[in-house]
């Protein structure tokens, strides 16, 4: 197995969900602090599972456990520990000017798509209003650091960029059509993860093998598309625009599974008031005890026992099982060395997110070498192609103007302002913002880490479903959907629920 595969397979889908499982034994339950020794363990106390992290992974893990409790009466208590003061982790919002009467902006994860069935289903079940991103991606330009390679109008980026005339003129018919077909096939395979016969996997290598994704994760996006006869110019420009805005990486670096995922933008949506609401609702519906502002410091074995003790900033408690739903190497948690060795490195790219408001409806045309007054696209994506040809690297990965701030009529400052989001490799300075926007009202910066391999809100909910299902089967003899493990190997799983319906979602409908 190549190094790339090895790293990729460990990181993909389960980047941050590691399950520490224990043989069945009733644990001791104590509300407050104190380390307990084994002989203090009281029988007939409801077993407890701890979840570290209240982001997409941790909140959905609690929800999946609660589904099994609800369906099969599994007797277990769930404690979720979160060191931040809020639920959602990297799915979080900020308000322009810190003014909660204004519509919030997503600081991290903004978009999910039709194929993301857990998030779509959750939004529906929890009555959350979705907003469409198509309008926001109308009017898109591709900047190479010195010039616009192509400008597309009429919502072409997400909706019809495969077929728009300008695209056909520049890249020909075959490259977009072949790419579209590759993406379509990848989505069809991916959707099998929601069927009743979906595979279960012990680790990511196992999943990649079962899904036949080895070729995808062993090649860069450029190599993979070229091997399928897709013209390089198309990959290095249009496909790279998508990989840079979604994952901050170029097509000759990013593996092909992630690269094709970044093109699967059909039905791009987000929750109007913030995607974190999905995760809040997962926790609310799970009945879990949620401890905010509580950092987990170490996870140790209870001496002479198969149980675990969690030391947190506000006390210690013993658990039957612990689900680690956070990027381990950023948690500062110490675990016993034989476990630490099992957790692979999680390489990530640094990215700077800059949110701002401005009275300028668009960026300054002269920055882009256009005449004053000339129209600049609302969304500017980038390619490394100019730099490859000896030019300069764009100073940002993407700039998108996200509509106007809607203020209450009669409010003090009624001058129109637009919301802007910038992704960049380097910190964006005030001087640069001044040059590119002229006026800047409010600005908010955050440096983030994006995993080099797939980690999205949805994949975290799939990974957590798998972990919870394996854990409950082992510990309680019954998973989220009952006593049978489904999957082609044990295809009798879930009799009567073959998942044949398009609306069927594994875990929700069993
Ligand atoms: C800028 C940016 C844009 C993105 N855009 C998208 C997008 O458009 N669509 C999409 O689907 N995904 C997107 N993503 C990826 C997405 O945000 C992540 O894949 C997803 O949110 C990860 O969820 P998680 O639960 O695994 O981790 P996290 O959200 O990081 O949650 C882990 C939680 O664990 C907590 N924690 C850590 N250590 C401890 C400890 N010791 N004790 C207690 N708690 C602890 C953290 O505070 C955190 O809340 C984006 C990410 C970034 C950074």
Automatic annotation (TrEMBL):
Signal sequence annotation: 1-19
* Segments of skewed composition (Polar residues): 483-493
Q: Which cofactor does it need?
A: FAD
Record keywords: Oxidoreductase included?
yes
**Protein known as:** Prenylcysteine lyase domain-containing protein
Q: Tell me the domain of life.
A: Eukaryota
Residues in Prenylcysteine lyase domain copies: 159-441
* Lineage, highest ranks first: Eukaryota, Fungi, Dikarya, Basidiomycota, Agaricomycotina
One GO-annotated biological process of the protein: prenylated protein catabolic process
What's in the keyword line of the UniProt record? FAD, Flavoprotein, Glycoprotein, Oxidoreductase, Signal
Q: Does the keyword DNA-binding apply?
A: no
Q: Which organism does this sequence originate in?
A: Pisolithus tinctorius Marx 270
Q: Which family does it belong to?
A: Belongs to the prenylcysteine oxidase family.
Q: Mind telling me which Pfam families this protein's record contains?
A: NAD_binding_8 (PF13450), Prenylcys_lyase (PF07156)
Q: Which InterPro entries match?
A: FAD/NAD-bd_sf, Prenylcys_lyase, Prenylcysteine_Oxase1
Instruction: Return the annotated region ranges for Disordered.
Output: 483-502
What GO molecular functions are on record for this protein?
prenylcysteine oxidase activity
């Amino acid at each position: 197995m190549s190094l790339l595969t090895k790293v990729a397979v460990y990181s993909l889908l389960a980047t941050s969900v590691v399950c520490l499982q224990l043989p069945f034994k009733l644990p001791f339950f104590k509300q407050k602090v104190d380390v307990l020794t084994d002989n203090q363990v009281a029988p007939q106390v409801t077993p407890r599972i701890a979840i570290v992290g209240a982001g997409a992974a941790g909140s959905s893990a609690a929800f999946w456990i609660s589904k099994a409790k609800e369906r099969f009466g599994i007797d277990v208590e769930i404690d979720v520990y979160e060191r931040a003061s809020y639920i959602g982790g990297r799915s979080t919002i900020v308000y322009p000017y810190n003014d909660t009467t204004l519509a919030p902006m997503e600081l991290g994860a903004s978009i999910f798509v039709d194929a993301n069935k857990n998030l779509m289903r959750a939004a529906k079940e929890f009555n959350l209003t979705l907003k469409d991103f198509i309008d926001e991606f109308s009017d898109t330009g591709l900047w190479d650091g010195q010039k616009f390679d192509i400008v597309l109008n009429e919502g072409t980026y997400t909706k019809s960029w495969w077929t728009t005339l300008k695209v056909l003129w520049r890249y020909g018919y075959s490259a977009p059509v072949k790419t579209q077909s590759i993406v379509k096939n990848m989505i069809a395979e991916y959707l099998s993860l929601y069927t009743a016969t979906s595979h279960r996997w012990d680790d990511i290598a196992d999943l990649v093998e079962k899904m036949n994704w080895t070729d995808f994760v062993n090649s860069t996006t450029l190599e993979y598309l070229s091997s399928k006869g897709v013209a390089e110019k198309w990959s290095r420009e249009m496909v790279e625009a998508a990989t840079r805005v979604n994952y901050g990486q170029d097509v000759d670096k990013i593996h092909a599974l992630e690269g094709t995922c970044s093109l699967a933008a059909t039905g791009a949506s987000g929750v109007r008031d913030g995607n974190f609401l999905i995760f809040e609702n997962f926790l609310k519906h799970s009945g879990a005890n949620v401890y905010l502002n509580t950092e987990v410091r170490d996870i140790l074995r209870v001496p002479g026992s198969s149980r675990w003790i969690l030391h947190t900033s506000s006390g210690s408690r013993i658990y039957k099982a612990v689900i680690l739903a956070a990027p381990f190497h950023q948690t500062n948690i110490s675990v016993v060395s034989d476990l630490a060795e099992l957790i692979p490195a999680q390489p990530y790219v640094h990215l700077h997110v800059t949110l701002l408001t401005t009275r300028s409806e668009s960026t300054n045309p002269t920055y882009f070498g256009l005449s004053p007054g000339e129209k600049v696209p609302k969304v500017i994506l980038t390619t490394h192609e100019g730099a490859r040809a000896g030019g300069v690297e764009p100073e940002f990965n993407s700039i998108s103007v996200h509509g106007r701030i809607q203020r209450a009529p009669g409010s003090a400052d009624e001058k129109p302002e637009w919301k802007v989001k910038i992704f960049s490799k380097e910190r964006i300075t005030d001087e640069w913002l001044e040059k590119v926007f002229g006026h800047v009202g409010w600005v908010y910066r955050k440096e983030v880490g994006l995993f080099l391999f797939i980690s999205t809100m949805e994949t975290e909910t799939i990974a957590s479903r798998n972990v919870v299902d394996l854990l409950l089967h082992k510990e309680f003899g019954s998973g989220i959907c009952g006593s049978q493990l489904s999957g082609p190997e044990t295809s009798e799983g879930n009799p009567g629920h073959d998942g044949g319906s398009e609306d069927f979602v594994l875990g929700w409908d069993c």
